[in-house]
Design brief:
The chain is built from 10 helices and 8 strands. The protein is an alpha/beta fold. The chain has one domain: Rossmann fold. Strand 7, helix 8 and strand 8 form a beta-alpha-beta unit. Helix 1 crosses helix 6 and helix 3 packs across helix 4. The protein is globular. The mean pLDDT is 93.
């Protein structure tokens, strides 16, 4: 941890209003710890969220925050990264925000390799609206909107992201803050789009997928695991059921989207002069003369 930055620099006096036992508390702590471990100062990062229980996270963190609308945090984060590529941009959003209404932005962020870190608070249910099934809910899940059980198979986030071109895939469990912090920090260090799918229990509306369920199944990838082997990574990304792997599942270095945008060759837009004459090298008088 940097001597200049500590987790206290990121803590905010506003207290979270999540349900007792909610995994969002741990995600908040893990993200703050990752910021501090990387020595990032609060003004050097932006956290973008959407709509959902966990989307209140920027309100509880001393950092630049943007609370966007449902399904749009990745789009907002993309705009922020293009305006200022030097900014550390993080998205914190739920599985509904990311894989439901925001799925289109999710897929194209993977394809473009935009340099943002996408932390998905995956509780496999719509908690904020009192318990409807989400894109990652298991088939047969009984809710208010599926009293006879959900008939759709769940979306598989990691294989979907890998197929779509994501260059970093990670999975963490909110029941293990230290390990989750390490995965998030690795994701933020990655150049390009990074997805961290966090298994986050919703103790109120999805108790069947809570701490006991995951503790019986999760395991951490060992030091001998090679995240650069795409074929092996695909098998690990698809592994789900009695065994669920945690850690950095895939990582590949490729040029980022913002590195290839011609308009950014002269540096970040936010650092350029607003004086049009200075930027163009042509005076308004000369322009006016050309049209008279």
């Amino acid at each position: 941890m940097s001597e200049d930055v500590t987790i206290a620099d990121y803590q905010y006096p506003t207290q979270p209003t999540w349900c007792p036992g909610c995994g969002d508390f741990a995600i908040l702590q893990g993200l703050q710890m990752a910021f501090a471990d990387l020595g990032l100062k609060p003004h050097e990062s932006l956290v973008v969220s959407g709509i959902g229980c966990g989307s209140k996270l920027p309100h509880y963190t001393n950092v630049n925050g943007f609370h966007s609308i449902h399904g749009r945090p990745v789009a907002v984060a993309t705009g922020a990264k293009l305006a200022n590529p030097d900014l550390n941009v993080v998205v914190t959003a739920g599985d509904g925000d990311s894989y439901g209404i925001g799925a289109n932005h999710f897929l194209h962020a993977c394809r473009r390799n935009i340099g943002i870190t996408h932390i998905v608070e995956d509780n496999r249910v719509y908690g904020l609206t009192k318990g409807q099934y989400s894109p990652t809910s298991y088939k047969g899940f009984v809710t208010k909107t599926s009293p006879e059980g959900a008939i759709e198979p769940p979306l598989e986030p990691l294989p979907t992201a890998l197929t779509s071109g994501a260059t970093f895939l990670g999975r963490a469990f909110s029941g293990d803050v230290k390990h989750m912090k390490e995965v998030i920090a690795r994701a933020m260090e990655h150049e390009g789009y990074s997805l961290v799918d966090v298994l986050q229990p919703c103790v109120t509306f999805n108790p069947g997928r809570s701490y006991d369920f995951y503790n019986e199944r999760i395991y951490k990838l060992g030091d001998d695991y090679d995240p650069t082997d795409k074929q092996v990574a695909r098998k690990k990304a698809e592994e789900w059921g009695e065994r669920i792997p945690l850690g950095v599942i895939y990582e590949r270095n490729m040029p980022t989207y913002e590195e290839q945008v011609p308009a950014l060759e002269d540096g970040p837009i936010v650092k350029r002069s607003l004086d049009m004459e200075e930027r163009s090298g042509v005076s308004y008088g000369e322009i006016k003369k050309d049209f008279t």
